[in-house]
Design brief:
- This is Two-component system response regulator.
- GO terms for molecular function: phosphorelay response regulator activity; transcription cis-regulatory region binding.
- Keywords: DNA-binding, Phosphoprotein, Transcription, Transcription regulation, Two-component regulatory system.
- With 226 residues, the chain is an alpha/beta fold.
- It has 2 domains: 121 residues, Rossmann fold; 91 residues, Arc Repressor Mutant, subunit A (Orthogonal Bundle).
- Helices cover 40% and strands 20% of the residues.
- The chain is built from 8 helices and 11 strands.
- A 5-stranded parallel sheet has the order 2-1-3-4-5, sandwiched between helices. A 3-stranded antiparallel sheet has the order 6-7-8, covered by helices on one side.
- The chain is elongated and about 60 Å long.
- The two termini are 13 Å apart.
Amino acid sequence: MIKIAMVEDDLELADVLTQYLKQFNIEVTNFEEPFLALSTLKVQKFDLIILDLTLPGMDGLDVCKEIVKNFDIPIIISSARSDLTDKVTALQLGADDYLPKPYDPRELEVRIKTILRRFNHSNNSNEEISKKTFELDFDKNEITKNGKYVKLTAAEFEVLGLLIKREGFVISREEIFDNSDLLNQDYDSTGSLAVIINRIRHKIEDNPREPQFLHTIRGMGYKFTQ
C-alpha cells in the first residue's frame, strides 16, 4: 500500500482524489491545516506529499521549504496558482513535480508512481513500489508479464494494449472498435471480440475462469487492473 499525505484545504477535491487513488492501492490522508501536516510527518511515515500552495495559516511554498528541510520525501505540488514564478520557486525549493489544477486524476496517479519509482531507485529502496506485472511497449509491439514476452496475435495485442493503456478504466466495446484497425462492428456479429478476450485471458491469467487482470464489466465493457 502506497501511503500519501495530502495537504489540501479544498475538501471536496481531496475526497475525489482520495476515492480515485484508492483503486490503485494508494491510501491518502488529507490535512486541511498545514501545521498539522508538518507535525504528523514527524511521527508517521508517508511515501509522498501532495501539496496545495494556497493554504490557511501558512503559504504552500513555505510548507514545501519546511518539508524539504526536515524530511526525505518526494513532493508533488497541486495548485491552481498559475504564476510561473510559483512553479519555478517550488521546483527550486526541492519539489519533484508541479501539477496545475484542474487536472485528470489519472495523470496524478501516473505521476505518483513515476516519481516513486525514481525516488525509490535512487535510494536503493525495496519498499512499496515495484515494477508492474505487465509492461506495454507500443514501439516494439510488445507486452511482457513479469519481464517475459507474451505471445499475442495482432488483434490480441491491439485489444490488450488499449486496455493496459487505459488501466483502471472501463472500456466499452464501441471504444475498442473505434481504436482498432483490425476489428469492426459488422465483423463482430460473430462474437469475435469475446473470442479475442477469451484467448487473451488464457495467455495472461493463472485461472481464466476467475480473471485477476482482465475483467468483464457487465453491460459496460472491459477493465484491466494490476
